[in-house]
Amino acid sequence: MKNMEKEFGVNIVVREENENGKKVFIVNNEELGVADFGDTLDEAISNFRKSVVLYLEAYPEKKRLLVREEKPVLVSRIFL
After folding, report:
1. pLDDT at residue 69, as a whole number
2. Which residue would you say has higher pLDDT here, 80 or 46?
3. pLDDT value at position 17?
């Protein structure tokens, strides 16, 4: 049986920063105000997902803001 819970997603911004000569990836979502980091991009995204889950457990009312009724064609950011 397929999971009946609605799918949700968040937009993320990924930055690469240098901390004491070491590369660190930072993943941030501005809508929720959640961020996390890791030594690799995969680790940073995994840590971010865990942080979002914990955040939504603490603030379940925020989850309803993230429910997707349809999938977007493109999600991007432009800089002016």
Report:
1. 65
2. 46
3. 96
Measured over the CA atoms of residue 26, residue 27, residue 28 and residue 32, the dihedral's sign is: negative
Torsion of CA 19, 29, 36, 47, to 10 degrees: -140
Backbone φ, ψ for residue 58 (5° rounding):
-75, -30
The CATH code that applies to domain 1-80 is: 3.30.160
Q: What is the CA radius of gyration of the chain?
A: 15
DSSP string, 17-37: EEETTEEEEEEEETTTTEEEE
Q: Where are the domains of the chain?
A: 1-80
26 and 44 in contact (C-beta within 8 Å)? yes
